[in-house]
Amino acid sequence: MFDPSILVNYFVLGTQDTNGERHFFEVLEEALQSKISVFQYREKGQLALSGSEKLRVAKKVRQLTADYHVPLIIDDDIQLAHEIDAEGVHFGQKDGDIINNIQLAGNLAVGVSVSNDSQYKRIENIKGIDYIGIGPVFATVSKADANPEIGVEGLKYLTSKSKWPSVAIGGISEINLSSVLSTGVNGAAVISMISQSANISATLKYWRSLHL
Ligand code: TZP
Ligand code: MG
């Protein structure tokens, strides 16, 4: 059974979001120590690792997340998710046929990104989805091909409509975090709020305080 409480402090990161592999693991380990609730490993874009390099990093990510008892979700790579025994996999709307992906995912948890009404309608009757990611809520520097931002109102609309637990994503910062969480969404998913934080532990403490 999928536990929606893991969506509360959802951290997403790939080596392209950091200054190299060493920095990637420093940021990840600090985030794990600071008690993120789930981690998504997302190699994406021109600087992303692939093949054996990606597998090598993913195996280390698996080891670290297991050490901290934090569930691991892999972005858009079902084979890798199975190979390293991740807890789940996440798909965008352009990551191939969703029904086929869900079948291949087997017993992995499945997340799907939703950006607007028509994307929601497209998945509404599909079985086997565990949660949706809604966004981008605000402008983001972390995703080159992001859809138009939907704002807090758009987030509120899709969150209330969703039959699944949902997590907000895109441009979420310590400044707008409380407005995001006030929509009733289960949690927030962030890259830069943590990867660019001067004090990851303090950022997580603040984040958790808003959920009390
Ligand atoms: N999907 C929609 S926006 C986004 C993803 C992966 C990037 C989120 O990064 P940030 O830095 O939290 O805006
Ligand atoms: Mg994707």
TrEMBL record:
Needed cofactors: Mg(2+)
GO MF term (any one): magnesium ion binding
InterPro entries with a match to the protein in the record: Aldolase_TIM, ThiamineP_synth_sf, ThiamineP_synth_TenI, TMP_synthase
Binding of 2-[(2R,5Z)-2-carboxy-4-methylthiazol-5(2H)-ylidene]ethyl phosphate, residues: 140-142, 171, 191-192
Binding site for 4-amino-2-methyl-5-(diphosphooxymethyl)pyrimidine: 40-44, 75, 113, 143
Keywords, sorted A to Z: Magnesium, Metal-binding, Thiamine biosynthesis, Transferase
EC number of the protein: 2.5.1.3
Protein origin, superkingdom: Bacteria
Cofactor note: Binds 1 Mg(2+) ion per subunit.
KW Metal-binding (keyword) present: yes
Listed GO CC annotations: cytoplasm
GO biological process terms held by the UniProt record: thiamine biosynthetic process; thiamine diphosphate biosynthetic process
Binding site residues for Mg(2+): 76, 95
Keyword S-adenosyl-L-methionine included in the entry's annotation: no
Pfam families, sorted: TMP-TENI
Pathway(s): Cofactor biosynthesis; thiamine diphosphate biosynthesis; thiamine phosphate from 4-amino-2-methyl-5-diphosphomethylpyrimidine and 4-methyl-5-(2-phosphoethyl)-thiazole: step 1/1
Reactions mediated catalytically: 2-(2-carboxy-4-methylthiazol-5-yl)ethyl phosphate + 4-amino-2-methyl-5-(diphosphooxymethyl)pyrimidine + 2 H(+) = thiamine phosphate + CO2 + diphosphate; 4-methyl-5-(2-phosphooxyethyl)-thiazole + 4-amino-2-methyl-5-(diphosphooxymethyl)pyrimidine + H(+) = thiamine phosphate + diphosphate; 2-[(2R,5Z)-2-carboxy-4-methylthiazol-5(2H)-ylidene]ethyl phosphate + 4-amino-2-methyl-5-(diphosphooxymethyl)pyrimidine + 2 H(+) = thiamine phosphate + CO2 + diphosphate
Similarity comment: family membership: Belongs to the thiamine-phosphate synthase family.
Function per UniProt: Condenses 4-methyl-5-(beta-hydroxyethyl)thiazole monophosphate (THZ-P) and 2-methyl-4-amino-5-hydroxymethyl pyrimidine pyrophosphate (HMP-PP) to form thiamine monophosphate (TMP).
Name of the protein: Thiamine-phosphate synthase
Native source organism of the sequence: Leuconostoc mesenteroides
